[in-house]
Amino acid sequence: MESFAPNKGSPSLSPLYIDTHLSDDEVAGVTVDYYGDQTSGMLVGYGQTHHNILYDRGSVAADRHGAVRALEATPSPNTEVAYNSFRRIRQRGIDQRTCYSESCSFFVHDNELYVDSFAVNSFVIGVGDNAVITNNKIFGMGDSPIGIGWGNNIRVADNFIMRCFSPEKRFEEYERKSSVAGMRVTDYGGGLKNLCFERNTIALKAEDHCSFARGIWTINGVKSQNIVYRDNIVKVEAMPENFDPNYGKHAGDFYNGNVENAVTPVSVNGQPLDIPSEEAPTSLLFEDNHLITNVNHITLGEGYGIANGARFYRTTLEKIPHDSEHKFYAPVRIGFWYLNSMKNRLIDTKLIGVTQEELDTPYFYGSSGKMEIFTA
Question: What tens digit of pLDDT does each residue of 162-177 get?
Fold first, then answer.
């Protein structure tokens, strides 16, 4: 079956819509080809959605909060999205509707997704509560592609995420240029709990017109509990020909699109400014991760709130050599403007191409900050 949505400009249209009150439905072997402005692909109910092809040919996401979704499913004890091919996505790929019951679940596995982002925060897999996200392959570029999002009580494992970005600015909401992220977790104040990200592989490249590239972009919120990143391989590289020799000299670099301002495998931030450091939570745990870059392996408190109480155990830091005239490199970067990041620990660290002197001298970009470093 092939479904077209030729009415360019019509809002909130889905070529395939299934009443979400129906239980245990199945959608399989369907091709949906669509291109209308603000037009989504499928909205399905409970049950299994598998072996479908979705092709979004559109280039307009007029309302990013309303979101253009390739596939939106209703969580239930039986909801499964698997073995689908998303040939192109303009904003969001797989999203789940709000879960109002503890019995809801959302199982997303073995999908292949390609994003060509035309809006800020283009989550390829949006996750949500009580979700298991495994063995998906995510590729893409665009204005602001983000591989995988967040929720409560989730497991994100064995996914492959490879991203670059567009050579032009496509969305006008922010002054900064395009950006890219592998996995993002943000707490807007309510707290998050029980998030596990393990054995994922992320590879990002930052070239011209890229404001930031963050492999793991995460928080350590006051009310959050049990956020774990384990056995992930994350490579984030600023391409040498695009290094800016003025990087780090201006507080506004983050908004000016200098590519190395936030090129990092791990970015930790999101702590409110009014929380004393002695009350900082310690719910954010990193174990046995391999971080590869030519700029900063870990950034704390860069641009989205301070970072307190993160623990890094048995982390491998691998430095990529480059021939740029701009030689800026620091394994750990702390601070942005006036933000303070305290009580973070890096313990039993393995170094590849990184000197002990470099590791013992973090780069401070702000008023103060501290990281305790214990190496094997």
Answer: 986 655 666 666 665 6
**CA 345 – CA 60 distance, rounded (Å):** 44
pTM for this one?
0.88
The contacts of residue 221 (CB under 8 Å, 6+ apart) are: 187, 189, 191, 192, 270, 271, 281, 283
Q: Determine the Cα–Cα distance for residues 124 and 228; give it in Å rounded to an integer.
A: 21
The Cα–Cα gap between 344 and 143 comes to: 32
How many residues appear in the chain? 376
Judged by DSSP in three states, 157 sits in strand
Q: Which of 356, 359, 290, 294 is nearest to 321 (CA)?
A: 294
Q: Could you report the per-residue pLDDT of 30-69, keeping only the tens digit for each?
A: 999 998 888 888 988 888 999 999 999 988 777 676 688 8
Whether the CB-CB separation of 32 and 6 falls below 8 Å is answered with no
* Six token digits for residue 86: 């998303």
* Beta-carbon-side half-sphere exposure of residue 190 (alpha carbons within 13 Å): 4
User: Pairing state of beta strands 284-287 and 311-313?
Assistant: parallel
First-to-last alpha carbon distance for the chain, in angstroms, is 59
